[in-house]
Specification:
Elements lengths: L13 H15 L4 E11 L6 E6 L4 E6 L1 H4 L11 E11 L4 E11 L2 H18 L16 E6 L4 H13 L4 E6 L7 H15 L4 E6 L13 H8 L5 E5 L7 H5 L2 E2 L3 H8 L3 H39 L3 H42 L2 H44 L1 H5 L5 E3 L17 E5 L4 E5 L3
Parallel strand pairs: 3-5, 6-7, 6-8, 8-9, 9-10
Antiparallel strand pairs: 1-2, 1-4, 2-3, 4-5, 11-12, 12-13
Length: 447
């Protein structure tokens, strides 16, 4: 650096001046800076480097992010994005341009969301909302399941598909709520409270598809977490993808990696139930056979003892009693077997009656009935609207310019179909259209 006490002027070359300024910047800000602003002029050449401008309402600065740092980005920078960036301040000597060399960049706000997430997680965890001791097991055979989610998302389609395939006997009700945006947290918490208080459900499933941290933020809300904690029935949480974790996942009685996985955890497989029923039926038949054999052996034993008794009168009497007992035993055994077989047949019939094919025709008939009711309701509504329209038409006609035309007046339009209110609005030679009560006349102004 030149001696400032020397009165002799020091002459710099552009290279020397730029190098001096670069060194001054390096000395003043050796650790770099954090800076926030809006991206513009984003360019990604084949080298893999990223060049862009960071600006706010009053100023802008050129920036560069070299390939190794750019490869670690979790998003693709684009014009208009608001970002938070850590960068070293420097000078590009070749052109004498002040620039920032970015080392790290993230969407502005995401870091704040993550900090809020960690703080809420720590606070609720300290209150015991995540304790394993308070988590309840799911019912083995839920009769009715409430699915709290968006009715138009892919998650609800996956859940309904898996539940219908695994256990058609379980009733499923979709409880619609928004799953993203400012209105989502209070709506989700309110639906959780209503579903819990209704007593209709054996289990609740809270779910939505994947997304960014901001997209899933409704499930990191404290009101939602406390509504899950206060639920009277078990709650399963399946929010986002397998790598996504929300506060709802930690509070819920069970966390599933995906909506489909949650559906598989909620209900048993009907194929396994059918296989178990067949095993029980075979076991019952085996036990009945053994009981019949034992009864026959006892009858033979008593018959042998009776045959050994004397005199013949007693033998005959006892033989008759034995025959009576044997017939009663056979009758009771057959009746018992018949009752068990009838009960088994009823169970099989009930299982067959619950097959979706049996329920499809009543559902189709119900759909036809509802469709006819809808058509009739629409016809009545159309008739009411037609009557109202007719009345409004009569009212409108009473104040319509057409009624004025019928009294001998006319409306004049110029060539642009604008209403002519003064003669000066029409130039000499310009054509006009005169609208009468019946028909139109086209004229041209001559003077």
């Amino acid at each position: 650096m030149p001696d400032v006490t020397d009165n002799t002027p020091h002459v710099f070359t552009p290279s020397a001046l730029n190098r001096l300024v670069r060194d001054l910047l390096d000395d003043a800000l050796p650790m770099g800076v954090w800076i926030e602003g809006e991206l513009s002029n984003v360019a990604r050449p084949a080298s893999g480097h990223v060049y862009f401008t960071l600006k706010d309402a009053n100023a802008q600065v050129r920036c560069a992010m070299f390939r190794m740092n750019a490869m670690r980005l979790r998003f693709r920078p684009a014009d208009g994005m608001h970002v938070l960036m850590r960068a070293k301040v420097g000078l590009y000597e070749a052109r004498g341009e002040f620039q920032l060399v970015a080392e790290h960049m993230e969407p502005a706000g995401e870091g704040a969301l993550q900090r809020d997430f960690e703080q809420l997680k720590a606070r609720l965890g300290a209150e015991g909302l995540f304790d394993a001791e308070r988590k309840r097991p799911l019912p083995a055979f839920p009769r009715r399941i409430g699915v709290i989610t968006s009715p138009s998302g892919a998650a609800v389609r996956d859940v309904l598909s898996v539940l219908g395939r695994r256990c058609a006997l379980a009733e499923v009700e979709v409880l619609p709520v928004p799953v993203q945006g400012r209105e989502a947290p209070p709506a989700i918490a309110s639906m959780l409270r209503k579903a819990s208080a209704s007593g209709r459900y054996d289990a609740l499933l809270l779910t939505r598809g994947g997304g960014s941290l901001e997209d899933l933020w409704a499930f990191n809300d404290e009101e939602v977490a406390r509504a899950i904690h206060a639920s009277a029935v078990p709650v399963v949480s399946a929010v986002g993808h397998e790598v996504d974790f929300t506060i709802a996942d930690f509070v819920a009685d069970l966390r599933a990696a995906t909506p489909s996985a949650a559906a598989e955890l909620l209900v048993p497989d009907s194929t396994d139930l059918e296989r178990q029923l067949r095993r029980l039926r075979q076991r019952m038949a085996t036990l009945m056979g053994r009981r019949l054999q034992a009864a026959a052996q006892r009858a033979d034993h008593w018959q042998a003892r009776l045959s050994a008794q004397r005199p013949q009168a007693r033998l005959a009497r006892d033989t008759q009693r034995l025959e009576t007992l044997r017939r009663r035993l056979l009758t009771v055994t057959r009746q018992s077997a018949t009752l068990r077989q009838a009960r088994l047949a009823r169970l099989e019939a009930r299982l067959a009656a619950c097959h979706p094919r049996r329920r499809l025709e009543p559902a189709r008939q119900r759909g036809d009935e509802l469709r006819q009711r809808l058509v009739r309701a629409m016809e009545r509504a159309i008739e009411r609207q037609r009557a109202a329209l007719s009345q409004q038409g009569r009212t409108l006609h009473a104040v319509s310019p057409l009624a004025t035309l019928e009294r001998g007046y006319a409306i004049v339009f110029d060539e642009r179909d604008a209403v002519v209110r003064r003669a000066d609005d029409v130039a000499i030679g310009e054509r006009v259209r005169v609208m009468l009560a019946e028909g139109q006349i086209r004229l041209r102004r001559d003077s």
